[in-house]
Amino acid sequence: MYVTRPLSLFKKNPEAVSALPPEGPNSGYLVIADKEWEDEARRFWGLFKDNRIRDFPFPQNRILAVEYTQSNGQSTSTYRDKVLFVPVIGQPLSANRYYAIRAQGKHKGKACTCSTEEDMGICCICTYIKDVKPQPFDLTNIYQRMQIRRRSSGFVARSVVENGFPPLFLRRKGWRLHISSSQQIPLQEANGVDFALRNRHPDFEFPGSDKRRSSAVVAGRWYCPFMFIKEDDTTPKDQMEKSPFYEITLERYWEQIYVCDQNSHSNPENTVTMNTSLQIEVVRLFGEEVMAEDIRVGDGWARFRTRKSGAERNVGLSSVVLDSMRAEAKRGGWVEMKEKQVRIERADEFKGNGGWSRYGSYVLVERFVLRRIDGSLVLAHDFRHSHQVQSKWE
């Protein structure tokens, strides 16, 4: 999962690019071309915006155009390819390593992939580099990772693997980079975990008779590039057009797990004994709970399925996303167990004055919510803290 940083930060503090990913190897940084940076990126005494990217790091809230001009005698030809550059996960921005995702044409949404010596073509007695077509993103494919370097007044890409060759438009020396005006991706500030909110419980002062849960507190926010998510049988092109990034929020709230009325409870000593089962981990797709038999994990993906009114829906999460959620839940105190159902047994005595009419017991829930860039809900993953239970008398 990625947190965001404004591009202006790195202009004021260049050393910030060396910061390690904030939450371990399954995290990274996304850079936002913010208003402060745009106001400074002007030319001709500030009269015109300068859409050229001259230095690292590259922003992710804009589609960028790779331009290369080639002279042919008395004429010149300019080549232009639109790309979304996404920093390689687990790397500091100073590494200048990116996934280069095609942002136009029939290969839109696919990752540029380096060819190898085995892909070399032969013409007469000479060999030449033969580009491979962009391919669906594969986190484990190191040939999809590009090392970008400065060259003259522009850039050049190299493979992170010794025998790899980036596609021609990236391996040309001195290509320039411009912000494409066709699309601005609405990324907002996302700083990961808000430790001040995470380290204290959500407010427990709410009317239990009216609500099954307390109001949720958002204690964390991240973004996830679309390549780490698979929706149904959507093609990479369609998915990138629909939502190039997904927002992930961490919500914390109290959820009711047991309730009883005084007139239905026959204990004269004002003691309520609770014995109930609790599912400690729940996944919902588009609001529908996913059954255990509809969860499959393997090949670097966790796949979830629901069937509602005969219609089947499928969503896949890259294992790095699911692992990040689990790791963050554990940092917050969630205890993973072999059995997904646990028994909660306790006896609570009413010690107030004037009697009681209703008793409710609540468990602390941490929910990771995955939404498209337009705010529409895709998935919710609940982690219930079975050791964090509170009671409410009314």
From TrEMBL:
InterPro entries in the record: DUF1262
A Pfam short name: DUF1262
Protein known as = Uncharacterized protein
Organism, as annotated:
Aristolochia fimbriata (White veined hardy Dutchman's pipe vine)
